[in-house]
């Protein structure tokens, strides 16, 4: 058999394990009830199905009554470490207590339902993944194995499209639709803990209808992964969000006890966030003095062996073959030139490379590299090393002044230029320093063994005191990078966008030989791209509630939607990115729909603030 598709519903993870594959889903109970018709209030046969997210229910008319389902706020996961083989399509015992709030919700919308008796309540588990997206496509490392499972309560609605897409993947190797969000290999070692995964599955189920605000952080299954600097961040008043299981500072509230962020926006709603002023302070530290941030959650992958360079040259648009110690900013590309990843790659030795990616994408990039491996490349060991190293970012105009007080190594511009990485000693501790930036200021990422991380952090903090060093969180990174035009994978860059459209043409080296997507990009370049990621300044100095996804209008028609958005504290403007028709270049006027109001916006050049480095090659990190 050349091709096997696992479409085994809640049994899929254990069937996949038989082939040595690791995929993740958890059975979560889903209940629905048949309610009797109420005389005088029968629902007509031709009534459309309804979805009522405010009341957490959906349903359809049935014999004058209704068949009602919904998403409980306290869901139940079962068989989290394996589904009994003998379970079949029979109902498991229902739980009326959990369903009652949904009945009340339905009665708020259809008052007669409070009088309708229940004919039957049934309960079936369905396979929920941690992000409520299905598992669709090939499995890296097991040739010929495909997944079509983890349907997360979308099985009826999506089965046709999923069947078609998997067929395309099997027969043609690619699909018409962007299925990247569904790649079965997006979960990693942290997801091997079935208790943790069950918490994630239940939380996504809880929010299936229940409004999740864009600034809310996941609350369940925490804390799962903490950096060696966690206690330092706690001492400084860190407010933690979470990504890929990592606890990470979103911002700091100095002088207040540390806390974990959760459904915070539920309290302040669609308004300016209460941390706005604190974020502004952090932003200014990086821009005007020096800021420091714990970026340990960066995904890290090492490639070692004679085949490493050939593999990387094939999957990357940029040229990887450069002297040892060089850092390259590049996109991982598919054969159509679409962006599968956005990473930096450091050459650590002739045959050894470290790829650094966003916390949320390390498993994706790892799987992608494995799928792209070819025997002809030669041997290469690909290994995730995320937890082997802590990362401390320190940037700002005073960054060199601070570093100089701690090291005898020459960190001058001439000796340690941009896009270089090497081991230096910080007060006797070996640290691999990379001169790269995602905030657009002078500075370094320090890669440190976890056992030394606190020592190095403390010394940097102490040395920075005289110049006003300040710790920052991931929210400040967003406002900093957007002022400089840096992109973010998953939001600004996806498989359906190519580097030429994304304004990253400087990362594509057509002259380096063949690579994934070269022909497609050459054709696109010759024909001229039709759309381009643009920077918009929306409204005026006043903070605007823009979150991404808002429609962009030109001459009364929708021409794009917002991708990343952030308030730029240095330029005092609301900054947003959007792919727009190329005719709408810098200087063009458009409008953005913000909560029903059309707000004027101006198309600006990519970087609103001039970048520190623009010579031919620029860099950012995907700090997702
Ligand atoms: C109450 C309820 C209401 C729902 N409402 C909706 C809705 O309105 N819209 C919607 O889109 N979805 C809905 N769903 C979700 C939908 O039913 C599921 O997502 C879908 O049925 C899952 O399909 P599947 O093919 O992945 O799994 P299944 O339908 O469970 O099929 C898996 C099959 O694999 C077989 N199998 C298992 N192990 C093996 C093995 N080792 N070898 C061979 N075969 C094996 C099983 O016997 C089974 O037949 C609802 C679910 C529930 C519980």
Summarize the structure.
This protein is an alpha+beta fold and 624 residues long. The protein has 13 helices and 28 strands.
What does this structure look like?
β9 (238-243) and β10 (246-252) form a beta hairpin. The protein has four domains: 1-212, D-Amino Acid Oxidase, Chain A, domain 2, CATH 3.30.9; 298-386 and 488-528, Alpha-Beta Plaits, CATH 3.30.70; 390-480, Gyrase A, domain 2 (2-Layer Sandwich); 530-608, Beta Barrel (Elongation Factor Tu (Ef-tu), domain 3), CATH 2.40.30. The model is unreliable at 613-624 (pLDDT under 50). The chain has 13 helices and 28 strands. The protein is globular and about 85 Å long. It binds flavin-adenine dinucleotide.
Keywords:
single chain; 624 residues; D-Amino Acid Oxidase, Chain A, domain 2; Alpha-Beta Plaits; Gyrase A, domain 2; six-stranded antiparallel beta barrel; 13 helices; globular; binds flavin-adenine dinucleotide
Question: Regions with pLDDT < 50 over 5+ consecutive residues?
Answer: 613-624
- Our Rg estimate from Cα atoms comes to 26 Å
Mean pLDDT: 95
> Largest beta sheet: what is the strand line-up?
19-20-21-18-12-22
The structural class is alpha+beta
Distance between the termini: 39 Å
What's the architecture of the largest domain, going by CATH? 2-Layer Sandwich
Query: What's the number of structural domains?
Result: 4
Which CATH class of the largest domain applies here? Alpha Beta
Strand coverage percent: 25-35%
* Secondary structure: number of strands: 28
Discrete helix count: 13
Judging from the principal axes of the Cα atoms, what is the shape? globular
Helix content: 10-25%
